[in-house]
């Protein structure tokens, strides 16, 4: 069991490094990560989680990230008086990394 936790922590660190320290959501089966902060994660589930609860938590995290990044910019534009214009710029969506053999 300890080996799986260590392996999970290593994989999370590598993912975070390979992706340039961008936000990475890691879904793992098996044991929970014993120390999420050592793995470079802001948060992690420390026990098995039902699929519905997992989906709700991921949506909540994504919504909070969206609000933190996007909504302050929209409020700033409104305060400058640029009404009537919409931000039709492209939305950056990064693809998931391909599964690698370890």
Judged by helices, strands and strand pairing, the structural class is mainly alpha
Could you tell me the number of beta strands?
A: 0
**Overall tally of domains:** 2
Based on Cα principal axes, name the global outline. elongated
Radius of gyration: 18 Å
Task: Kindly list the characteristics that best describe this protein.
disordered N terminus; mainly alpha
Describe this structure in words.
With 102 residues, the protein is an all-alpha fold. It has helices spanning 2-18, 51-79. The two termini are 18 Å apart. Mean pLDDT is 61; it is low at 1-7.
Task: Summarize the entry for a quick read.
The protein has helices at residues 2-18, 51-79.
Task: Present the secondary structure layout.
Layout: H1 2-18, H2 51-79
């Amino acid at each position: 069991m300890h080996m799986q936790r260590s392996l999970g922590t290593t994989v999370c660190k590598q993912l975070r490094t390979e992706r340039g320290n961008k936000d990475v959501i890691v879904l793992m089966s098996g044991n929970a990560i014993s120390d999420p902060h050592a793995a470079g994660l802001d948060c992690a589930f420390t026990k098995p989680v039902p699929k519905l609860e997992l989906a709700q938590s991921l949506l909540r995290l994504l919504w909070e990230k969206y609000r933190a990044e996007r909504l302050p910019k929209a409020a700033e534009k409104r305060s400058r008086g640029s009404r009537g214009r919409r931000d039709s710029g492209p939305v950056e969506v990064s693809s998931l990394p391909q599964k690698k053999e370890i």
